[in-house]
Amino acid sequence: MSDQPTKDAMTPEERHRERMQRKKELVDRKIARATIDRGVLVVNTGNGKGKSSSGFGMLARSLGHGFKCGVVQFIKGTFSTGEEAFFRRLAGDQLDYYVMGEGFTWETQDKARDIAAAQAAWKIAAGMLADPAYDFVLLDELNIALVKQYVQLEQVLEAVAARPPRQHVVITGRGAPNGLIAVADTVTEMRVVKHAFEAGIKAQKGVEL
Amino acid sequence: MSDQPTKDAMTPEERHRERMQRKKELVDRKIARATIDRGVLVVNTGNGKGKSSSGFGMLARSLGHGFKCGVVQFIKGTFSTGEEAFFRRLAGDQLDYYVMGEGFTWETQDKARDIAAAQAAWKIAAGMLADPAYDFVLLDELNIALVKQYVQLEQVLEAVAARPPRQHVVITGRGAPNGLIAVADTVTEMRVVKHAFEAGIKAQKGVEL
């Protein structure tokens, strides 16, 4: 109770300042404790929107810092996508961009072809993970290929563990295997609260496409 | 039981094709039902990583489609961010980009200044929402300003409802108010499974910055 009179004498502005000062000290202490500086493995999973688009946002950040970047898209619909047009147009040789999947599995309806496409995509990806020239690697929808066992988890875990220590890797897609989550640094589950598609709204350019 | 013998006679490839054909019919029916074609309101919320980066990924998609885009960042740390460098460098007059916040509330420690900055940012945002020239508008971290009531929810709901029918709007930040979720078309909660920062890893350029 002893400091109560003092508190009462404070203006709302002073109280705000005091609260924010305490918060700043807390945040600063947390920042001071985070001293490890190395490449991270980020996994975006779950059924909600934002897994791939968040990966492409990080790609934009990385390009903004002048990083050499690699992208492999493991599954691609037959639609043309805005991000491909955009990043290809302007990134020049700062970016290597591969679209390997020939479409969703229910479009090709040919398992052997899907496996061959996934393996070809993985070969490119493994090359990037082994190459210290790449600062940032986005493996879009790799989780789908892992769930279907078109690419083996052990191959991915090995390549990720052996990668250059400063290289960031982002892996997206539903159903990230537990073994991948275990070795990742940052994992987010994108949870659907609601989705426009379920309300009868078409996939929209700039948002989904 | 009557078609059991036929199924048994199918090769694994035929069974895969049949399963995928059924899936394709299901997906195609869903796509056929989604006939509404208009601008959508997307909200990214929750405590996990990916809310802003997903917004910037959608911005890249929109720019890739040649859309006129607007970005207002309501809260900005003192660090320089890769996405700002990247998008400013190359988008030219296809993009208007405003960074309005002067830092996190615990950095400024000045509530009146924070409110003034949020209000100035909202004024720019409201102008974009009223302007049919903008196809895509990203209001990054607006939810934070709403939670703190530096911007009033009623103002935002009104501006969003009155916007041009083809305009897409993406609003990000923790703690999206229920009133905003109610009118949004697509809402994702980014849920933390784990975060590198909690394991003592510094915020990384290209990933967080």
Automatic annotation (TrEMBL), chains A, B:
It comes from Dyella caseinilytica. It catalyses: 2 cob(II)yrinate a,c diamide + reduced [electron-transfer flavoprotein] + 2 ATP = 2 adenosylcob(III)yrinate a,c-diamide + 2 triphosphate + oxidized [electron-transfer flavoprotein] + 3 H(+); 2 cob(II)alamin + reduced [electron-transfer flavoprotein] + 2 ATP = 2 adenosylcob(III)alamin + 2 triphosphate + oxidized [electron-transfer flavoprotein] + 3 H(+). Residues 1-24 are annotated as: Disordered. GO terms for molecular function: corrinoid adenosyltransferase activity. Its EC number is 2.5.1.17. The lineage of its organism: Bacteria, Pseudomonadati, Pseudomonadota, Gammaproteobacteria, Lysobacterales. Pathway: Cofactor biosynthesis; adenosylcobalamin biosynthesis; adenosylcobalamin from cob(II)yrinate a,c-diamide: step 2/7. Its main location: cytoplasm. It is found in: Cytoplasm. Residues 13-31 form the Cob(I)alamin adenosyltransferase N-terminal domain. This is Corrinoid adenosyltransferase. The gene is cobO. InterPro entries: CblAdoTrfase_CobA, Co_AT_N_dom, P-loop_NTPase. Coiled coil: none annotated.
